[in-house]
Design a protein that fits this description.
- This protein has 6 helices and 8 strands.
- By secondary structure, it is of the alpha+beta class.
- The chain folds into 2 domains: about 55 residues, SH3 type barrels; about 80 residues, Winged helix-like DNA-binding domain superfamily/Winged helix DNA-binding domain (Arc Repressor Mutant, subunit A).
- The strands form 2 sheets. A 5-stranded antiparallel sheet has the order 4-3-2-1-5. It has a 3-stranded antiparallel sheet with strand order 6-8-7.
- Helix 2 crosses helix 6.
- The chain is rod-shaped, with a radius of gyration of 22 Å.
- The model has no long low-confidence stretch (mean pLDDT about 90).
C-alpha cells in the first residue's frame, strides 16, 4: 500500500510513495526530498492522512489565510488593507466595488478568522490586518 504516512525509528514522518520487498521510497512532507529507507526502519502512523501531513508543511498563517478567505474579493480586501495600514470603513467603501452589506460581511468573516482587527481611524471605526494576515501575505508575495 502506498500514499500513507510512516515514521522512521527517530520519529520523523514521511509519505510512503512506493514499497518494495526490502526498502521504501519515502518523501519528506516539509522539504519534498525523496529517498529510500529500509522497510524494517519504518512503521505506519495510525490515523494520519497523507494530505493532512502535506498541509502541515505550510505555516500556520498560510493555512489560516487559505482556509478562511472565501473568494478573490475578500483576498483583495485583505491585501489592500495590509498595503494601506489602518483604514476607516468609509474609505474601504470607496476602494472597491463592494456594497456596504457585502463589505461588512467580509470584514466580519476576516475578523472572525483572526486576519483583521478593528481599530479607530480618525475617530471612526476602521480595520487593519493582524500579524497573522501580514505574515501569510508576505509569504505569498
Amino acid at each position: 500500500m502506498t500514499d500513507r504516512v510512516v515514521r522512521d525509528s527517530e520519529g520523523t514522518r514521511y509519505i510512503l510513495e512506493k514499497r518494495s520487498s526490502d526498502s521504501s521510497r519515502v518523501r519528506d512532507p516539509e522539504t519534498g526530498e525523496r529517498h529510500h529507507l529500509p522497510n524494517d526502519h519504518l512503521e505506519p502512523v495510525a490515523g494520519a492522512s497523507p494530505l493532512s501531513v502535506a498541509a502541515e508543511s505550510l505555516s500556520a498563517e498560510a493555512v489560516t489565510l487559505v482556509t478562511t478567505v472565501p473568494d478573490e474579493r475578500a483576498l483583495g480586501l485583505l491585501v489592500e488593507l495590509d498595503r494601506r495600514g489602518p483604514t476607516g470603513v468609509r474609505t474601504l467603501l470607496d476602494v472597491g466595488d463592494l456594497c456596504e452589506s457585502d463589505l461588512h460581511g467580509l470584514l466580519a468573516v476576516l475578523q472572525a478568522a483572526g486576519l483583521l482587527d478593528e481599530v479607530t481611524v480618525a475617530g471612526e471605526r476602521g480595520y487593519e490586518t493582524t500579524e497573522t494576515a501580514s505574515a501569510a501575505l508576505d509569504r505569498l508575495r
